[in-house]
Amino acid sequence: MKFFIDTANLDEIREAYDLGVLDGVTTNPSLMAKEGISGDENVTAHYKAICDIVDDKVSAEVIATEFEGMIKEGKELAKIDDKIVVKIPMIKDGIKAIKYFHSEGIRTNCTLVFSAGQAILAAKAGATYLSPFIGRLDDISFDGLELIEQIAHIYQNYDFETQILAASVRHTMHLIKCAEIGADVVTCPLKVITGLLNHPLTDKGLAQFLADHAKVNKK
Ligand code: G3P
User: In testing the pocket of ligand 1, which one of 3, 5, 25, 28 has its CB within 8 Å of the most ligand atoms?
Assistant: First the structure.
């Protein structure tokens, strides 16, 4: 399972990368706004800065919602760096744009996915990644993980090449359950990745080991 970090914050991206387990980054317009990034030039420079930190796969989202605009913007984004994956919303023109980018060899991430039907469409269009939003489904009393399971089953039936990128992952149990189901990628905030480290018995055990070592190694 690949780990992507879901942020546009350079420090957090560096911290996750330094841990040695990061496979990519996902951003969206809200995450860019959170970092105060605005204006075409700044946005481009920020994506470039992200690409310079990680090895590959930086999702950069288009703002346009009609076909021509998405193609123009997506091409501009793809030009920033070979690591860019063009993120396209799950709407009618988005599906057409995904199909277009697929034929041009440009990787895409189909975002804002909330149903199995949408997942089938995106795979048919040739999306590289599919981003079902688990947390936002849970927020409205639908089971986000059940959707991941359903999509994984459907994709297996037809050997679809689209990778399931579980998004809107809010906590470690989301991530672990996604691993059990077999999601190809999980994108999450830094605290979810570092949260995997925590266990009180690890802390207690380490303290005991160090104390026992100190007892017989007095200076
Ligand atoms: O990857 C999508 C993500 O940024 C949305 O997360 O927590 O705002 O639902 P959230």
Answer: 28
Distances in Å between the Cα of 42 and the Cα atoms of 30, 46, 83, 149, 163 are 15, 6, 18, 38, 30
CA distances 171 to 22, 134, 192, Å, are 17, 11, 5
* Cα-to-centroid distance, 76 and ligand 1 (Å): 24
pTM of the model: 0.96
**Confidence bin at 57 (pLDDT 50/70/90):** very high
Atom of ligand 1 nearest to the CA of 30: 4
Tens-place pLDDT, residues 64-121: 999 999 999 999 999 999 999 999 999 999 999 999 999 999 999 999 999 999 999 9
Which ligand 1 atom is at minimum distance from the Cα of 26? 1
Ligand 1 and 26: CB distance under 6 A: yes
> pLDDT, tens digit, for every residue of 23-35?
999 999 999 999 9
Q: How far apart (Å, rounded) are the C-alpha atoms in residues 118 and 116?
A: 5
Statement: residue 219 has pLDDT above 80: no
Question: Catalytic residue among 57, 75, 83, 87, which?
Answer: 87
Q: How far is CA 20 from CA 17, 82, 106, 213, in A?
A: 5, 21, 27, 29
Ligand 1: centre distance to CA 18 (Å) = 23
Q: From atom 2 of ligand 1, which residue's Cα is the shortest distance away?
A: 168
CB 111 within 8 A of CB 85: no
Active site residue 75: no
